[in-house]
From TrEMBL:
Residues 27-37, 118-129 have a biased composition (Basic and acidic residues). The chain crosses the membrane at residues 138-156, 168-186, 198-219, 248-271, 283-306. Residues 1-132 are annotated as: Disordered. Residues 40-69, 87-101 have a biased composition (Low complexity). It comes from the Bacteria. This is Sulfatase. Residues 106-116 have a biased composition (Gly residues). Keywords: Membrane, Transmembrane, Transmembrane helix.
Length: 664
């Protein structure tokens, strides 16, 4: 827009031709030393910039007033040099031009964006300035909406993917109303002092919810911030063994970036919403008042918008969980002090098993779902029924029951510790305290009664100091088993090879003392691909024969895109492990063999579905009828498959019941 204007003709102006002559630079701009002398007697002429004779006075300054119809900026002023300048956005008192707004926190324009310039308001020839202004406005509101959605996720979203419905967002978080009310009362610095820590706390809450979703998907429970840090290490080991070291590094880096990004975005979101609330103070006050009253009424009357979804809710449940977890140490210490078998002499322990070799085998992820769910029951049930027929032919009998595992989907070591110690070990803190105590485990009981106790541990790939606590005379760890074949995803070696090592190194030794062995069988460990096949026991060698098997089947990435395929592969893996146990007993079992096998926990929810029980099958197999007569009072089911009405015990009850049944 030109800074030059045409003067309006006044009656006192000179002749039309002279008055309408185009302005020159001298009309619009004069140096201070060129100022004309003011004529008090001729204000009209002086103001018009003309001499007494009607000709333009070259010494008179250009008037500051302009024609209102000329399109000239009404805020144009004359600077000390006599130049006409556009409105600068400053009022006569030195304040900011109301047309250029600044929010209370210093951000200009709507939602903290910069206000439109004069050029944007006037627009250029093609309207580009107006378009840019509209884009900035839309972008500002869109950013505010996204910030609101992110905060709503942190405060209202459930921590289980299966619970995501529109109804869960029909709740009023009391904390949010309190924070907004506080923000409206505080000055600018106070608002920031509140918004930043609130944003960080919401970011942490969002991270915990995301972690909870993963825990529920795999372990069917939420993340415990006190106990579950070891689970991240276990998860990293699982990724590394399944996808290699590079895959594990990528997963860890990605998780770290996601966590940091969520904290930063949540903090900026809260700051932005704080500015928006202050800018629309009156509307915000009305809304907070109305919602606050609704929360009070809802809390008093127990109002619910939909069943089981209260109107008012608080987010301090996690704090209560932490408090309970911290108290758990005292609770566990009190439980551990009670041990009916701590001081029983060795000669009174396990008298009903004298001279027997006892094997305790944990079948990975072998749960009640595998036996009773229609998707698996026909094939797995057939494997168990056929297997029992084969064992009966070989002279064996069996009894089966149910145990409730302390864990689900993972954490096998917690289940092992629970069964062996007779204590409920459902978290890492309890496991750590247990393994640093002198609790008598089932292994120690056999050791005290003069059995040789060994552990054949294909899943132990690092130093395992807990072996001393459990009471093993010798631990055959993964690297000491002489396996030269391929790894089957997480499983270091097939179950058949693991049992063959036990046979060669312990059971087959001539004149060996009675041996008690703990053997985790890991071929049925997730991700259930590839799966080995049962071969002749004489063909095993160093395991190299399994090479071609490890190259068959789908990759874990492809398999886990289809839940039905995952469930099918899980079934096949469990059937392989069960077939291996039956085949071992057919080939190497004798009159002095007592074989106990059980599941450590249920498989993850992708296999079991939501809300599955934590029950696992347990079976005792023996040729000597006297062994099973000892447990006749347990009311367990004949065969390898427990029935629906078979009693269910806590897994922590097994140690005492077993020592009682087979003691003197």
């Amino acid at each position: 827009m030109s800074v030059f204007t045409r003067r309006r003709r006044n009656p006192t102006d000179g002749p039309p031709g002279t008055a309408d002559a185009p302005s020159t630079d001298a009309d619009a701009q004069r140096r201070p030393d060129d100022q004309g002398t003011h004529d008090p007697a001729g204000p009209a002429n002086t103001a018009a910039g003309t001499a007494d004779n009607g000709t333009p006075d070259a010494t008179a300054p250009t008037p500051a007033t302009t024609d209102p119809n000329s399109g000239t900026d009404p805020d144009a002023r004359t600077d000390p040099d006599g130049r006409t300048v556009l409105g600068s956005g400053t009022d006569p008192d030195g304040g900011t031009d109301p047309g250029s707004r600044t929010d209370p926190d210093g951000g200009a324009g709507p939602d903290g964006g910069a206000g439109a310039s004069d050029g944007d308001r006037e627009g250029d020839g093609d309207g580009g300035g107006r378009r840019r202004g509209r884009i900035r406005t839309v972008a500002g509101w869109l950013t505010s909406v996204l910030a609101l959605l992110l905060v709503a996720f942190a405060m209202l979203a459930p921590n289980q993917l299966s619970l995501f419905t529109p109804w869960v967002f029909l709740r009023l978080p009391v904390e949010a109303l309190l924070v907004v009310a506080l923000v409206l009362l505080l000055p600018t610095w106070g608002r920031r002092a509140v918004a930043v820590p609130v944003g960080l706390l919401l970011g942490l809450l969002a991270i915990v919810k995301v972690v909870d979703m993963g825990f529920f998907a795999v372990l069917a429970r939420p993340f415990n911030p006190v106990f579950d840090w070891i689970s991240f290490e276990a998860g990293t080991d699982f990724v590394e063994q399944s996808y290699g070291r590079t895959g594990a590094i990528v997963a860890v880096v990605a998780a770290g970036l996601l966590a940091v990004g969520l904290l930063v975005l949540m903090t900026f979101s809260v700051l932005r919403l704080t500015r928006l609330a202050v800018r629309h103070r009156r509307a915000t006050t009305h809304i907070v008042s109305a919602l606050g009253a609704t929360c009070v009424v809802g809390a008093v009357l127990g109002v619910q918008i939909v069943p089981d979804v209260p109107v008012s809710t608080l987010t301090y449940d996690r704090v209560l969980q932490v408090q309970a977890a911290l108290r758990d140490q005292e609770v566990f210490a009190a439980e551990a002090r009670i041990d009916a078998f701590a001081n029983v002499p060795g000669e009174q322990l396990l008298t009903g098993l004298r001279g027997k070799d006892v094997v305790l085998a944990f079948v990975e992820s072998y749960g009640r779902t595998a036996v009773e769910d229609p998707f698996f029951a026909r094939e797995v049930g057939a494997t168990l029924d056929t297997g029992y027929t084969r064992l009966r032919t070989a002279g064996y009998a069996a009894r089966s029951g149910w145990l409730t595992s302390p864990t689900f989907g993972g954490g096998s070591w917690l289940a092992h510790a629970t069964l062996l110690s007779g204590l409920w070990i459902n978290n890492q803190q309890r496991y750590t305290h247990l393994t640093s105590s002198d609790r008598m485990t089932l292994n120690r009981a056999f050791q005290r009664a003069d059995w040789r106790t060994v552990g054949v541990m294909p899943g132990v790939t690092q130093t395992w100091p807990e072996g001393t606590f459990f009471g093993y005379d010798e631990v055959h760890a993964s690297k000491e088993l002489g396996y030269r074949g391929p790894q089957f995803s997480w499983a270091q070696m097939p179950d058949q090879y693991t049992l063959s090592v036990f046979e060669q190194r312990e059971h087959a030794k001539p004149d060996h003392p009675p041996v008690m062995a703990t053997i985790p069988l890991v071929s049925s460990h997730a991700p259930w691909t590839p799966i080995p096949e049962l071969i002749g026991w004489d063909q095993l060698g160093d395991g190299s024969i399994f090479g071609p098997m490890a190259e068959t089947g789908e990759s874990a990435d492809d398999l886990w895109q289809d839940s039905d395929k995952v469930r099918t592969q899980y079934r096949r893996a469990v059937q392989y492990s069960l077939d291996t146990v039956v085949s071992y007993l057919e080939r190497y079992g004798d009159d002095d063999m007592v074989f106990v096998f059980l599941g450590d926990h249920q498989a993850s929810p992708i296999v079991t579905g939501e809300n599955a029980s934590r029950d696992v099958p347990i079976t005792i197999v023996a040729k000597d009828p006297a062994v099973l007569d000892r447990i006749s009072g347990w009311n367990w089911q004949d065969g390898l498959k427990p029935g629906p009405a078979t009693p269910v015990w806590q897994m922590s009850d097994f140690r005492d019941k077993f020592l009682t049944a087979f003691g003197s």
